[in-house]
Specification:
The chain contains 18 helices and twelve strands. By secondary structure, the chain is an alpha/beta fold. It folds into three domains: 3-29 and 171-198, no CATH class; 39-160, EIF_2_alpha (Alpha-Beta Plaits), CATH 3.30.70.1130; 205-448, 3-Layer(aba) Sandwich (Rossmann fold), CATH 3.40.50.300. Strands 5-12-11-6-10-7-9-8 form an eight-stranded mixed sheet, sandwiched between helices. A four-stranded antiparallel sheet has the order 2-3-1-4. β11, α17 (407-419) and β12 (424-432) form a beta-alpha-beta unit. α2 packs antiparallel against α7 and α9 (240-254) crosses α10 (275-288). It is rod-shaped, with a radius of gyration of 42 Å.
Amino acid sequence: MELADYLAILRKRWVSIVVIAVLGVAVAAGVSLLMTPTYTASTSLFLTVQSGNTAGELQQGSNYAENQVKSFAQVATKPVVLDPVIARLGLATTSTELAKDITASVPTGTAIIEIDVVNTSPELAARLANEIGAQLIVAVGDLSPSAADKSQSVKATTVEPALVPTTKTSPRVSLNLALGLLLGLLLGFAQAVLRDRLDTTITGEVDVADVTNRSVVGVISFDPNASEHPLVFSGDSHSPRAEAYRRLRTNLQFLSIQANNRSVVITSSIPGEGKTTSAVNLAFALADAGDRVLLIDADLRRPKIADYLRLEGAAGLTTILIGRATLPDLVQPVSTHLDVLTAGEVPPNPAELLGSDEMKALLAQASRDYSYVILDCPPTLAVTDSAVLAQVTGGTLVVVGSESVHKPELAASLEALESVDGRILGMVLNKVRAEGKSAYGYHQYHSQYLPRNADAGVEG
């Protein structure tokens, strides 16, 4: 994965990342509230060695003190020091347990022992530190060899007594919250990447490219009102979606379609991807360019075009296929260059009718009379109707609904069309959600090039 892929995941799943980050902060805050506050009191001892008055003897004494100070630092956590402390302070504990709360360290290159004591009571922490320091002074005297004059050769002196701490050692709320936020962000991003890897939903051209190397010949933006207002050319004919269908029209005109069979199947993998809306608007876009276009509702199971265009739907394609009418009898003009043949009555055997010789003859006649014949067909995975028509038409456009269809479904759909030698012209990526600045920038760019006196609608 490249940086752009990670940024795309971040834009797509930022809500879940933020939620998990907030949960991380909440957990850190909860842990901080449940933790028992502790305090740390510190005292320091300095070790000196009684030696002669010459420079050599003084240096030798200093080196001896530095060598011994590490040993005496370890003594600070031993029973020889802690047992008297427990007895003097009347503590109900053992030297082993008390040693867990004590840290004795020696700064590099010094003869100083620093003793830190952690306790839930700041007063007791200070008393323990001072008492441990006092008992360590006694232990140093007892454990050190005597000088020639029977005096102590090593002497420990308190240089900094412990004071009652006023600030908590733990919990460190700010640090905990920061760590909770960082961990939450990492977990959030990790789950976002994992979900993206496991999610097979198609959302963009990259996902389509993972399934097939066929070109995306059209990208139609998402419109939440498309089901109520499917005709983009009946309103603002210069809207971004209308321009997208014009680009699809241009790409279709450049695709190699047989001159004697300029019929195009519009299908999808599953219901709800917007294949009917795409078929209707593509037909309008082609007619708007001056081509004679016939739009056929070949979805004989759930026909919609009659309702979309408010046309008479009682007689139509099925009426012609059973020999009760001819094509000129039933086509309904909706604009200067666009005629529509509705589905007619829903038959009990749609696949058989669409694969009949009568259907082939109808397509041959329509290809002679019109520049383009657009057929709105059922979803490929639902029934075989689209595959049947794909064999006898000039090509197929597969509508891919963004966030509607999964990669395995699209792959199965394409395989079904290819298995009958259906010619796939390309993919139409539909209902693509625009994101933030990119969409706003496109709208600004698009609006700058609108003609000032542009007609607001299209006939029909």
